[in-house]
Amino acid sequence: MHKKYPKQGTKEIILPFDGPSKYSDALLKVFGMRSPKALTLFDQTMRLKVLGSLDQFVRENMFEESKIEDDFQNLRSNFHKLLDAHREMQKAEKQLELLKPVKTNSGELEKTKEELKQLSDLKETHPVYFYKHKADFLVNEIEREKFLLKSFLEKEENLTTEIKKQRMMKLN
After folding, report:
1. Structure letter (DSSP) for residue 64
2. Is residue 5 part of a domain?
3. Tens of pLDDT, residues 113-163
4. Is 36 in contact with 24 (CB distance < 8 Å)?
5. In sequence order, what are the residues at sequence separation of 6 or more whose Cβ sits closer than 8 angstroms to the Cβ of residue 5?
6. I want to staple 17 with a disulfide (CB 3.0 to 4.6 A). Which of 22, 133, 150, 170 is the partner?
7. Angle at CA of residue 63, ends 58 and 69, nearest 5°
8. In the chain, what is the straight-line distance between the N-terminal and C-terminal CA atoms, in Å?
């Protein structure tokens, strides 16, 4: 066949193909078709024997369904979802920033609460504490006063004895 149909310039007239898929790819390229569906439509048109309604045939077979509007709506919906998620993340970050001082102050608050509890416990127990210490103090004071009284009484007795001695001596 190459002898009967030789090359013309750089193009071969007859091209051998390994299978139908390579042949269909070449046909798409030669006819400038964009999709394999166009080749299927071409095949249907060639095989069409009975044509009922040309308008119906064109609507059903020649127009590819366009999903561009659906794709656009999906992209738009996803974009809005991403924007909402981004806003929520920014809001959460802002809330975390606002909560940092609260966390810091919560430690101080816990310390203050503990001190307040200790002071409250002391306030409740201080009457018992002071009663006990007051009792000990009073017992010590009584003992000291007794000692002082005894000391004064001894002094008085000594002085009385001394006065009596001196009177006796004057009388003698």
Report:
1. P
2. yes
3. 999 999 888 888 888 877 888 888 888 999 999 999 999 999 999 999 999
4. yes
5. 13, 14
6. 22
7. 145
8. 184
Q: What CA–CA distance (Å, rounded) separates 30 from 27?
A: 5
Sole residue written with tokens 């006990």: 132
Give the integer Cα–Cα distance in Å for 130 and 143: 19
**Per mean pLDDT, which range of 61-75, 88-102, 138-152 is the poorest?**
61-75
The type of residue at 148 is: L
Q: Describe the crossing of helices 36-47 and 20-31 by its angle, rounded to 10 degrees.
A: 90
Are 43 and 54 a contacting pair, CB within 8 Å? no
In a domain, 86, yes or no: no
The answer, yes or no, to whether residue 28 has pLDDT greater than 60, is yes
Tell me how far the alpha carbon of residue 71 is from its chain's centroid: 33
Write out the residue range of the structural domain in which residue 49 sits.
Answer: 1-65
Q: How far apart (Å, rounded) are the C-alpha atoms in residues 28 and 35?
A: 8
130 belongs to a structural domain: no
Indicate whether 113 belongs to any domain. no
Residue type, 60: E
**1 contact partners, CB below 8 Å, separation of at least 6:** 14
